[in-house]
């Protein structure tokens, strides 16, 4: 027996065992297991928008596009983004992973197996339907859409896609690329500022989904301004250890002096079911960012399935980059206060309160410290605060009065851009826009912008609601959203001369904030339970409706004037014609 590392003789464990109960030891079962962040998101991928292959394809496109926009805007570069989805056949995919195609031997083993009897029954049913349709055509009857005959049971073959996104943004430092993509919860978006995205995962979740569905690595090409080389990195992720697994990382010549990033990932997906969602997303993104140029391509072996859409730039005016801001005292919790104490460079409590929070001037900080009690003093070391003292600070923050934070840290799209985006993509007959002033909920500033359009291209009758949060479209769980509920239930459209059922109405509402109050595990909608936000949304829509009402009334009045003028001209013409006819007949007038 190997006894290395033991503290006693080999007999000691046996004696100890005889001295205790005879129940067998289960020491292995008592060991605590720790999951890495990557492993957690892999097991709970639905909360990051990777519910199924179709949604995963949509979310991958969304994450890559939003990363590209952030990258270009961070250096004040007008975004030029190319996104391509290339369909990969099963045989091509097998070739890529080095797997040889194999014919089925035991066909009954497969989920999509159809017995001879079932096949005959299905074909007979299809023949009857075709016969009925032929008779109806012969009789000149209008054909109804044929009922879909249930085909063979089975999930069908998995579909694979190569998603590529290229931009002209900042690019990434060569040495940081592996950790930026191959380590979950590591990044640069953790200060308090208005940011796109929901979980801070970016392309990392696409890499995890690629690892789970295809096992293939992700390719990253990047170059920063002024660099004479291009960084190329091929990597995947060690999910259990949450570290990047680098296959290739090298520098290549940058002949074109290009800067930006190009990311390519191969994943399992479903284009058929999520085609409309992806195209709607791109169209809405073109509305809210009319200063960006998008080129979208879907490439398939079947030529008639190919899609190419260019969303042109309409303006050179970009919103300012949102600056990072400090926390408002009423918006912090105990954990955040402790973190700020750990990270602060300030020595004493007075400096800490004055410089780590917004709207606390020196005089007000001194008053707060005086209110905390005799255990506190302005000169005391902030690092020496006990847990009880930190709780006291938190309690006072929740009870004291503070000035509301300003909206200077926010970057809305702007009325000009919103109007241009609506006109560019929908081509409406009338449009009105409104930008509200900054307001506050739970210590976080927010701004609501709205636009209402009437008529337009590819717009259905009734309300067509477009929702945006921090300048990104929200496409799912619309019914519970504050914007949808406000537009449907709290606006009396008839009072603004707008027919809710018959007119083609576009409702555009954009909310920007340092903290968007998303609801649901997937953060797909904004809750209707915050009075400040629902009131601001209602007010913004009403302001747009008032503008439209004024335009509609002027149009109606102009039509009435034209109609009266036509009627008057017709009456004069009829009277003149009558007189002329009487003269011609030489009948004396009365």
Structural account:
By secondary structure, this protein is α+β, with helices and mostly antiparallel strands. The chain has 3 domains: 39-93 and 157-311, Heat Shock Protein 90, CATH 3.30.565; 329-399, Orthogonal Bundle (Helicase, Ruva Protein, domain 3), CATH 1.10.8; 415-549, Ribosomal Protein S5, domain 2. The chain is 37% helix and 19% strand. It has helices at 12-19, 37-43, 53-74, 90-97, 116-138, 177-182, 204-213, 271-288, 334-343, 349-356, 362-372, 387-399, 415-426, 482-489, 531-585, and strands at 80-88, 159-166, 218-223, 229-238, 243-253, 260-269, 293-299, 307-311, 430-435, 439-441, 444-454, 462-469, 472-474, 504-513, 518-519, 525-526. The protein has an 8-stranded mixed sheet. Strands 9, 10, 11, 12, 13 and 14 form a 6-stranded mixed sheet that branches. It has a two-stranded antiparallel sheet with strand order 15-16. The longest helix has 55 residues, at 531-585. The termini are far apart.
């Amino acid at each position: 027996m190997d006894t290395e590392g033991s503290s006693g003789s080999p007999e000691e464990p046996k004696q100890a065992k005889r001295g205790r109960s005879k129940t067998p030891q289960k020491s292995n079962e008592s060991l605590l297991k720790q999951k890495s962040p990557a492993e957690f998101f892999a097991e709970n991928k639905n909360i990051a928008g990777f519910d199924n292959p179709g949604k995963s394809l949509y979310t991958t496109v969304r994450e890559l596009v939003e990363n590209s926009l952030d990258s270009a805007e961070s250096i004040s570069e007008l975004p030029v983004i190319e996104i391509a989805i290339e369909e990969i056949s099963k045989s091509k995919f097998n070739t890529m992973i080095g797997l040889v195609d194999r014919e089925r031997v035991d066909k009954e083993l497969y989920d999509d197996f159809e017995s001879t009897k079932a096949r005959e029954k299905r074909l007979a049913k299809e023949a009857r339907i075709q016969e009925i349709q032929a008779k109806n055509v012969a009789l000149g009857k209008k054909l109804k859409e044929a009922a879909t005959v249930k085909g063979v049971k089975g999930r069908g073959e998995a579909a694979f896609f190569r998603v590529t996104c290229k931009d002209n943004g900042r690019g990434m430092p060569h040495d940081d690329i592996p950790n930026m993509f191959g380590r979950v919860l590591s990044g640069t978006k953790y200060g308090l500022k208005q940011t796109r995205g929901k979980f801070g995962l970016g392309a990392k979740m696409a890499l995890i989904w690629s690892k789970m569905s295809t096992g293939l690595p992700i390719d990253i090409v990047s170059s920063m301004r002024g660099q004479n080389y291009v960084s190329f990195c091929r990597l995947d992720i060690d999910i259990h250890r949450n570290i990047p697994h680098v296959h290739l990382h090298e520098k290549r010549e940058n002949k074109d002096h290009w800067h930006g990033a190009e990311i390519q990932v191969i994943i399992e997906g479903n284009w058929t079911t999520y085609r409309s969602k992806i195209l709607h997303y791109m169209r809405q993104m073109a509305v809210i960012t009319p200063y960006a140029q998008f080129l979208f391509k879907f490439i398939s072996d079947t030529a008639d399935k190919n899609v190419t859409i260019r969303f042109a730039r309409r303006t050179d005016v970009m919103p300012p980059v949102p600056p990072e801001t400090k926390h408002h005292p009423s918006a912090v919790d105990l954990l955040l206060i402790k973190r700020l104490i750990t990270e602060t460079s300030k020595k004493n409590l007075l400096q800490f309160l004055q410089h780590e929070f917004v709207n606390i001037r020196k005089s007000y900080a001194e008053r707060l410290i005086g209110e905390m009690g005799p255990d506190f003093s302005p000169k005391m070391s902030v690092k020496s605060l006990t847990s009880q003292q930190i709780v006291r600070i938190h309690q006072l923050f929740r009870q004291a009065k503070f000035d509301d934070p300003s909206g200077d840290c926010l970057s809305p799209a702007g009325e000009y851009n919103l109007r241009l985006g609506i006109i560019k993509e929908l081509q409406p007959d009338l449009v009105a826009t409104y930008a509200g002033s900054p307001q506050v909920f739970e210590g976080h500033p927010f701004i609501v912008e709205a636009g209402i359009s009437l008529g337009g291209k590819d717009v259905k009758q009734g309300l067509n609601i477009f929702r945006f949060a921090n300048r990104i479209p929200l496409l799912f769980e619309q019914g519970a959203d504050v914007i949808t509920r406000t537009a449907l239930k709290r606006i009396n459209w008839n009072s603004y001369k707008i027919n809710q059922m018959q007119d083609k109405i576009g409702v555009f509402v954009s909310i920007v904030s340092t903290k968007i109050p998303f609801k649901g595990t997937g953060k797909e909608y904004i809750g209707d339970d915050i009075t400040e936000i629902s009131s601001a949304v209602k007010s913004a829509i009403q302001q747009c409706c008032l503008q439209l009402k004024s335009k509609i009334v002027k149009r109606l009045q102009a039509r009435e004037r034209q109609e009266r003028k036509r009627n008057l001209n017709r009456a004069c013409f009829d009277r003149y014609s009558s007189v002329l006819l009487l003269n011609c007949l030489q009948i004396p007038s009365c």
